[in-house]
Amino acid sequence: MKVQFIHNFSANTEEEFSKIQNSLGKNIILKNSFNIKDIKTCAGVDLAYWMKDEEEYATCCIVVIDYNTKKVIEKIYSYGKVNEPYIPGCLAFRELPLIIKAVEKLKIEPDIFIFDGNGYLHFNHMGIATHASFFLNKPTIGVAKSYLKIKETDFEMPEDEMGSYKDIAIDNEVYGRVLRSRSNTKPIFISCGNYIDLDTSTRIIMNLLNEESRIPIPVRLADLETHIVREKLKNI
User: Fold this and answer.
1) Which residues bind Mg(2+) (predicted)?
2) Count of domains in the chain?
């Protein structure tokens, strides 16, 4: 799969990161660029980290499934040294180089990418799912297991029933949604990445759930794959 390069990764300060995020943020489109009936494939994206010789490494794993049958049809990974420090809210600058490297290996071009992380639910509306969308030129969704608190705004817990949700509004703008993907479990936090609206994002995530996990199938499979690959690479 081809990737379009929007910017390089030579920036290394929080101020430079923020400038890039604000510039890209002007081009976010929270509307569907597709018909949901046409979705055939969906990719889950996740990364895992480890230390070696006092240097940080990571692997990015992508698992592509058939949207209807939920069967795995492709899985690939990339790995390498992580060159950027961890700065809250700037995760994309650490992860995108490896994500791009992995995406370029895909033989199948997924219709939707779902990331383990945020999208529009971010202080600059530029979580990993949104930022990556500009390189992938594909609809993206962010699914986070924990809440990124913005402007000291807390979320309202949905009812303990699968499919229940509460929108997360900050300064009268909806940033994302807290969704009960299973009863008797912690909720997940979903947000648009780009080229998609929140209701459609919710519908897609609900279609990709099963009894094995509170996170959608492709993201869970990508997460499991990162642990397998990391263990293999740590000892090289």
Assistant:
1) 46, 116
2) 1
Per-residue pLDDT tens digits for 17-29: 889 999 999 999 9
Residue type, 93: F
Element (H, E) at 44: strand 41-52
Specify if 19 maps to a domain: no
Residues 6+ apart with CB under 8 A from 235: none
Compute the distance between CA of residue 136 and CA of residue 97 in angstroms, rounded to an integer.
12
Cβ neighbours, 10 Å, residue 149:
11
Binding site, residues? Answer: 46, 116
Does any domain span residue 224? yes
Q: What is the CATH number of the domain that holds 92?
A: 3.30.2170.10
Residues annotated within the binding site for Mg(2+) are: 46, 116
Q: 44 is in which domain, residue-wise?
A: 33-144+192-234
pLDDT at 11 over 70: no
17 found inside a domain: no
What is the three-class DSSP state of 154?
Answer: coil
Report the pLDDT value the prediction gives residue 87, as an integer from 0 to 100: 83
Looking from the CA of 12 toward its CB, the CA atoms found within 13 Å total 5
User: Whole-prediction pTM value?
Assistant: 0.96
Model pLDDT, residue 8: 83
- Would you say the C-alpha torsion 130, 134, 140, 143 has a positive or negative sign? negative
Distance CA 127, CA 191 (A): 9
pLDDT in tens, 187-226: 999 999 999 999 999 999 999 999 889 999 999 999 999 9
